[in-house]
Amino acid sequence: MEQIRSIRSLREQLVSVRRSGKKIALVPTMGNLHEGHLSLVKQVQKCADYVVVSIFVNPTQFVEGEDFGNYPRTLESDLIKLENLNVDLVFMPDGNEIYPEGNNVIAEVTVSELESIYCGEFRPGHFKGVATVVTKLFNIVQPDLAIFGKKDYQQLLVIRSLVENLNLPIEIMGSATMREEDGLAMSSRNQYLTESERQQAPILYKCISEMASAIKNGESDYEKLEKAAVSSLKKAGFKPEYLSICDSETLKVAKNQKIVIIAAAWLGKARLIDNIVV
Ligand code: PAF
Fold it and tell me: Among 3, 36, 111, 142, which is disulfide-ready with 186 (CB 3.0 to 4.6 Å)?
């Protein structure tokens, strides 16, 4: 497994791979790899000949006061996991390689409305940071294919939108959320939960699953469902940021059959997000 830190070496390495006609896939990550990330790698390996995993804790997607400094960095064990999966190349640049201009980021990518609603409302600037770093990674690696987890549902929509609107010749795959046995969506930030919060955490998934069942059984008063779920979450000790039944492609008011339930809530120091496409 190649381990590369500089853009120049990465490009040199990929010249011959591309020349040999191999289909290149990119799995962008911020490291601290869990089963969810590994499932992205396994899934994309079935569709590509050469898999690049990037590990970069992207400062520009952390909003002021967030956990950029404390975000778990576990490079050594990440590399072992990727080696075991026969990943072809790991790209692990440092901050200066991606942002040589430091804090004065010069060119940024914005994705209109999607950027300021739901997670974007509560984390202003977050999606601009994501869209910018993902565009940079796409330009650096020039993959044929890239894969992202569906747990970050809004992020996946932002990325699909930027690829479509900037005419990037990259196929975007979404991969099903990996869950713990009790239903909690896997996330690096689950580590912030205390033992007792960890017991409570699956309630978020339980709530949105119950909403999904109600909708499937014909309930059409979405506001009532949302209010009831927010109140259950509060009772269980969560601080919900949003919980909404919306259109699965635009995240606007749900008007037809394409529905997603999206939710974000704090439990202690962990901000948990989850969703279900109904
Ligand atoms: O989902 C993530 O881990 C990050 O947002 C991503 C896509 C790697 C961009 O930094």
Answer: 36
Domain 190-277 coded CATH 3.30.1300.10:
yes
CA distance 268 to 194: 8
Pocket test for ligand 1, best of 38, 66, 155, 163 (most atoms within 8 A of CB): 155
Q: Among 134, 150, 153, 173, say which to mutate for ligand 1: greatest number of ligand atoms within 8 Å of CB.
A: 134
Q: Residue ranges of the domains in the chain?
A: 2-175, 190-277
Report d(CA 85, CA 67) in Å as an integer: 29
pLDDT above 70 coverage of the chain, percent:
100
CATH of segment(s) 2-175: 3.40.50.620
Band (pLDDT 50/70/90 cuts) for residue 113 is: confident
* Residue 29 in contact with ligand 1 by CB distance below 6 A: yes
Residue 224 CB contacts under 8 Å (≥ 6 apart), including other chains: none
